[in-house]
Write a structure and sequence with these properties.
The protein is mostly helical and 247 residues long. It has 13 helices and no strands. Helix 1 (2-40) runs parallel beside helix 3 (62-74), helix 5 (96-108) packs antiparallel against helix 6 and helix 10 (180-193) packs antiparallel against helix 11.
């Protein structure tokens, strides 16, 4: 009888240890799932709390840091986002999305050189990642490095021929290089894929302006405004002056 009691105790202890391990694992997964659901619903504070709970349970969970960083970035808490993305890379050194997100966050802070360096790191990890090329091209555009932007856009389009943002960026690069017909062709491509893109109509308006096709420039400027894009006041002033008309 005594032996059976001792055996039962051992079995109970073993079951507790196994269940304890499973419970901890499920807790991380539940916290992660809750965080994702909150994030998708725009409840970023709740998402941050959920991902923080996951990190408390497993301080080496790189995905939890990454997701919390995304929630911070959505709240424009950029320094906190950067810290979490770096932690994500610490535990997942080849996390291309963390490098890409660091690039985007530094770009939002106006630190273009760091943004370029992190997009470049993402490309080193995966040279076939179109988003990293297109994002880096966007930074190059902000620095008026049009030839470099063009190269990155071409690579992004080569990797993903239906990549709308890459065509948008390439059109802007062509505008910067004075190749307006090529710019218009790219903006036409974007509009065919995304007809409600106000910024694209504005960019095409600029290309038409430089080609002195003022009627088309006005039409695109109006369409851009209809779609909710705030057309640059200086551009409108220049268009009014060049075309000799008010609207």
């Amino acid at each position: 009888m005594g032996k059976k009691i001792k055996l039962s105790i051992l079995i109970i202890v073993a079951m507790f240890l196994v269940d304890g391990h499973v419970f901890a694992k499920i807790s991380v997964e539940d916290a992660m799932n809750n965080g994702v659901k909150y994030g998708e619903s725009g409840k970023f504070d709740e998402a941050i709390s959920a991902f923080s709970e996951a990190i408390k349970t497993d301080p080496r969970c790189g995905d939890a840091y990454f997701n919390r960083g995304m929630a911070y970035a959505s709240k424009r808490n950029l320094d906190e986002a950067i810290s979490d993305f770096k932690q994500a890379i610490k535990f997942n050194p080849n996390d291309i999305m963390a490098y890409n997100s660091l690039g985007n966050t530094y770009y939002s802070k106006g630190d273009y050189d760091k943004a370029i360096s992190y997009f470049s790191e993402a490309i080193k990890i995966n040279p076939n990642h179109p988003h990293a090329y297109s994002n880096r091209a966007n930074v190059f555009l902000s620095k008026a490095y049009f030839p470099q932007a063009l190269l990155d856009c071409n690579k992004a389009i080569e990797l993903k021929p239906d990549y709308t943002e890459a065509y948008q960026n390439r059109g802007s690069a062509y505008n910067g290089l004075g190749q307006y017909d090529k710019a218009i062709a790219d903006f036409n491509k974007v509009i065919s894929m995304s007809p409600s893109s106000g910024i694209t109509f504005f960019c095409r308006a600029a290309a038409y302006f430089y080609k002195k096709q003022y009627g088309l420039a006005w039409a695109d400027a109006h369409k851009s405004e209809e779609l909710g894009w705030k057309v640059d006041s200086e551009f409108l002033a220049e268009l009014k002056k060049a075309s000799g008309r008010e609207r």
